[in-house]
Amino acid sequence: MSGASQVITGLTLTNVAVWGVSRIPAPATQQWWLSLAHTPGYPWFKNRQLFTHMFGHLGVFHLGLNMMGLLNFGPSLAQSRLFNGSGSHFLAFYLSAGIVSSLGAHFSALVFRSHRFTPGMGASGAILGVFSAWAMTHENAYVRVFPFPKVFAAREMLEWEAAFEVLGLLGLWKALRLPINFGHASHLGGLGVGVAYVTYGGNVQIWTSSRRAAFRSMKALSIL
């Protein structure tokens, strides 16, 4: 098992484990689980929730859908020219996409007053970051989305997903009284991270330079 495969397996097992613990019907457990959520409008919001929210899920379907996305798109993306099989690089990207997506939700809540007091949980932002980077690096690939009979080209699917989230953020689905209550701002944040990382050569412009700076700092501090 490669480093990237170990990271993807570890992320999957961590999410499953957190969900399993959240099912324990004890007050302390439920309080801990709720503390993972990102709720920007609450006075007890903590910065760490920008990170912890991506490991909590609201149900088995929510968890299963996100982990299916990670297991479907993650391995192929990790082995692409963008990551070259590096587990640490893929993990840094995944976590960064999750945090930035949460910042998108935070911005939307404070500026547009959207979902201000709704606890936000789930790895969707990070997963959509993985998906958008995969779509940008696998333009000749195709995606089938259940239950639609049509097979979408990777880039086409990315465009449809972005349009869906933008319309949701603008309130169209709510105006049409459709039962769609997703974290559209968070999803757009994740999509944007993946697109930007590929478009602007994040593997060279961000990852390589960041690693060099980190190693220089550790050497200066005699850590290495």
TrEMBL record:
Keywords on record: Hydrolase, Membrane, Transmembrane, Transmembrane helix
Name the UniProt record assigns to this protein: Peptidase S54 rhomboid domain-containing protein
Source domain of life: Eukaryota
InterPro entries on file: Peptidase_S54_rhomboid_dom, Rhomboid-like_sf, Rhomboid_protease_S54
Organism lineage: Eukaryota, Fungi, Dikarya, Ascomycota, Pezizomycotina
Location(s) in or outside the cell: Membrane
Regions crossing the membrane: 50-71, 91-112, 119-137
Sample GO molecular function, one term: serine-type endopeptidase activity
One GO location term (cellular component): membrane
GO BP term, pick one: signal peptide processing
Family: Belongs to the peptidase S54 family.
Topology of this chain in the membrane: Multi-pass membrane protein
Peptidase S54 rhomboid domain: residues covered: 49-200
